[in-house]
Protein: Aromatic amino acid aminotransferase
Amino acid sequence: MARVPLRPAVADLPAYVPGARVPVGAAAYKLSSNENPYPPLPSVVAAIADAAVDVNRYPDMYATELVEQVAERLGVPAAGVVAGCGSVAVLGHVLQAVCGAGDEVVLPWRSFEAYPIAISLVGATGVRVPVRPDGRLDLEAMADAITPRTRAVLVCTPNNPTGPAVHDDELRAFLARVPGDVLVVLDEAYVEFVRDAAAPDALAVHAEHPNTVLLRTFSKAYGLAGLRVGYAVARPRLAAGIRAASTPFGVSHVAQLAALASLRAEGELLTRVEAIVAERSRMLDGLRAQGWTVPDSQANFVWLALGDHASSFAERCARAGVLVRPFAGDGVRVSVGEKEATDLFLEVAAEHAPR
Ligand SMILES: *Cc1c(COP(=O)(O)O)cnc(C)c1O
Structure:
């Protein structure tokens, strides 16, 4: 019997492996998806409830008010901001807007596992450039990997799952080498957690380099992972292309109002981010005191390069009541969550410490 063939690029796609979920009724801390451990603020829950009564209507297609608020905060024109259902979806639309079959996209590896999927879906070829042993992106090698076929370069900063942010000087040296017709995507999903003084002000970099696009999200620092809202900042001409490639009515009315309420409660939410940053220091200090070598995380997770022990270590953590994210044969990413979760995790880490 004849069968409908899947496009080879789709048939061969690696599956996106979501972080382990806590089974219903089980007692465990979920440190496997870089989520915000805090529940939504009452004011955000109220906005969600208010928005619920209008869901028989389509949402504002371009999330106009949200886009205007974001643009005003960032000091960019509203025409340069494109909202989408999570910055992962926005990345897909960015690639659809600039790449096609036969094009190359340079990306660091290991990095965000959604990248290879998004690249394959547009028919492009991913060119992976190894991340350095200290978990930092090798921007020089990424610039070296650019060919006449390269249409885009993905820069994940801080890099998921290793943690470090790129530095301003290395980013500028890199951009000086990238042709003006190659898009550079700065994925800043964790920008609110960055405390490294050498990290770039991506908006300033964007102002100087029209071939850059920034991606940001409400999923991590703002705690709205379940509502799917993120955005791109680009020059208006590119932004119009990204908008044209976007799913119509992608960002729900509920998500738009929750994001707006989160911006109104920004002070409170950024206080929570500060607490997560402090907890990150406690986790890094605890691991280093045990003898682990850990990359300098600027995000809400830490990385243990465990090689072949990654999966067994993750299983040991799960038995102790902490779900972490293993990347088989490579390492384990542990999100920063509740204090109790850090304590439990550090107990397991101590048993496996290198000294
Ligand atoms: C979490 C994450 C995102 C954002 O995901 P959305 O929930 O789709 O906004 C984007 N990039 C990286 C590297 C991430 O880790």
